[in-house]
């Protein structure tokens, strides 16, 4: 029986990279952004996803990342292709995807969600809460 793609990890962070040997490096995982006023522009964040594909699932895959607010309104949308390499054995292939977001604008405070899909199938939903800082009286 052939397994379908499996999500191993999905998170937001301050920085991510893949080092020699395919090690995934993640720094500063977060799920909240704090700001004094809206709209909010977050200077830099990384969305990291690690997926495992069966050895028969080689080739090009379509990916899509969508950011929606708590009302389901789409505020960001990007897509492209990713390659699942041919494995040297019957072992599954791990594929690391790192998406860099510069100056992302959040129109209002509230709950947001990054939705990641591969070939039209949602594989990750990453929650992000944008909160208002309170001044201490």
Biggest beta-sheet profile: 5 strands, mixed
CATH class: Mainly Beta
Q: Please name the CATH topology.
A: Immunoglobulin-like
Number of domains: 1
The mean pLDDT is 92
Number of helices: 0
Give the H and E element order.
EEEEEEEEE
Strand order of the largest sheet: 3-9-8-5-6
Integer-rounded radius of gyration: 17 Å
Q: In percent, how helical is the residue content? A: under 10%
Low-confidence stretches: none
Total number of beta strands: 9
CATH architecture: Sandwich
**Alpha-beta classification:** mainly beta
Q: How much of the residues is beta strand, in percent?
A: over 45%
Shape: elongated
Distance, first to last CA? 62 Å
Which features would summarize this protein structure in a list?
137 residues, mainly beta, Immunoglobulin-like, 5-stranded mixed sheet, elongated
Write the layout of secondary structure elements.
Elements: E1 6-18, E2 24-30, E3 32-35, E4 40-53, E5 59-69, E6 74-84, E7 93-106, E8 110-118, E9 121-132
Parallel strand pairs: 3-9
Antiparallel strand pairs: 1-2, 1-4, 4-7, 5-6, 5-8, 8-9
